[in-house]
Amino acid sequence: MEIENINQLKAKFIKEYRKMSDEEIEKFDIKFTEKIEPYILSDFYGGYHPTGRKADEKKERFVDYIYMYMIANNKEYFYERYDQPLFAAAKRYAEGK
Q1: What is the model's pLDDT at position 3?
Q2: Residue 34: HSE in the Cβ half-sphere, 13 Å Cα cutoff
Q3: Confidence at residue 5, expressed as pLDDT on a 0 to 100 scale
Q4: What CA–CA distance (Å, rounded) separates 62 from 26?
Q5: Looking at the domain assignment, is residue 1 inside a domain?
Q6: Is residue 57 part of a domain?
Q7: Residue 2: what pLDDT?
């Protein structure tokens, strides 16, 4: 799986997000907040636990990347075996690398 650069991801996200109805967005947001976000922050490969002065900002950027990726690529769930590159890219984005 090839991870797009952030500009490509944002463009693809905007395109797909605009196609979604308000109801679809609301349903996705609820699912993401209740099921996906806790999973990616604490369970998936031990989660993402940034430290330092900007830890909350890094965590938010990490979550934002995953959110954009899921919508841009119509992703419903993750496989620990296959989604390592996605989470590594999200971490790099969160940490500004």
Answers
A1: 57
A2: 6
A3: 86
A4: 21
A5: no
A6: yes
A7: 46
Distance CA 71, CA 28 (A): 9
Is residue 81 assigned to a domain? yes
Q: Range of 84's domain? A: 6-94
Residue type present at position 36:
I
Alpha helices in 36-83 (DSSP H): 37-38, 55-72
CA angle, residues 38, 88, 76, in degrees to nearest 5: 50
Condensed to tens digits (0 to 9), the pLDDT of residues 53-69 reads 899 999 999 999 999 99
The reported pTM is: 0.88
State the residue for tokens 């990490």.
62
Enter the DSSP assignment of 34: I
Decide if 49 is inside a domain. yes
Matching residue, tokens 């999973």:
39
Task: Domain count for the chain, please give it.
Answer: 1
- CA separation for the pair 67, 12 (Å, rounded): 12
> What is the model's pLDDT at position 49?
85
Per-residue pLDDT of 13-26, as tens digits, reads 999 999 999 999 99
